[in-house]
Amino acid sequence: MFVGPDGAHTALELQELAEELGIDRSVTVMGPVDEQGVASVLRASGVFVLLTDRENFGIALVEAMIADCAVLATRGVAAAEFVEQCKGGILLEAPDLQASANALKELSDSEDEVVAMGMRAGQFARDHLTWEESAKRYLEVFRGGRTNAS
Q1: How do residues 112-142 score in pLDDT, each as one tens digit?
Q2: For residue 146, is pLDDT > 70?
Q3: Would residue 149 count as lying in a domain?
Q4: What's the mean pLDDT in 104-113?
Q5: Eight-class DSSP state of 24
Q6: Residue 150 is assigned to a structural domain of this protein
Q7: Number of structural domains, the chain?
Q8: Averaged pLDDT score across all residues of the chain
Q9: Do residues 70 and 44 share a domain?
Q10: 147 vs 115: CA distance, rounded Å
Q11: Does 121 lie in the same domain as 92?
Q12: Residue 94 belongs to a domain with what CATH number?
């Protein structure tokens, strides 16, 4: 399932590519969705994928974690450190087609582990990545203390 606004490829291009590859029956291209739609899509998903060279934080990744999704991401996403801390998914060094395909295959072959990753990710996010917890950490930093999300 591809969700979000057109980027490097339009929704139509992605749909046409799925048809060309003969996988159009198992691929859905949704395009942009509102906040409620995002939450609904995430709850129905087992794995969330965010492959990018650089992402300042990655709020979408945290939203996916909160929805108990296992994560496949690149280390260029700042929030990927949380996935690593809780063992909530697979992290790649950089966006790479073959490595991404291998990781997705690994995830598709291990449903129980995907569920376990998602549960770890969700629990970590609910314990450490709420707005309240973030505010506490910022206050601690402003007061001169040190803190981390673990």
Answers
A1: 999 999 999 999 999 999 888 888 888 988 8
A2: no
A3: no
A4: 94
A5: G
A6: no
A7: 2
A8: 90
A9: yes
A10: 29
A11: yes
A12: 3.40.50.2000
Tens digits of residue pLDDT in 43-64: 889 999 999 988 888 899 999 9
Q: Which two tokens stand for residue 142?
A: 């402003």
Residues 54 and 123 in one domain: yes
CA distances from 68 to 35, 54, 93, 138, 145 (A): 17, 23, 23, 25, 31
**Residues in CB range of 69: below 8 A, 6 or more apart:** 42, 45, 46, 47, 48, 118, 121, 122
Domain containing residue 82:
35-142
Tell whether 64 and 99 lie within a shared domain: yes
DSSP assignment of 69-114 equals: -EEEEETTBTTHHHHHHHT-EEEESS--HHHHHHHHHHHHT-HHHH
Amino acid at residue number 11: A
- Give how far the C-alpha of residue 19 lies from the chain's centroid of Cα atoms, to the nearest Å: 25
pTM for this entry: 0.81
**Residues listed for the chain:** 150
Do 12 and 50 sit in the same domain of this protein? no
73-to-24, 35, 101, 111, 148 alpha-carbon distances in Å: 24, 21, 12, 18, 21
**Tokens 């569920």 -> residue:** 115
Contact predicate 48/64, CB 8 Å: yes
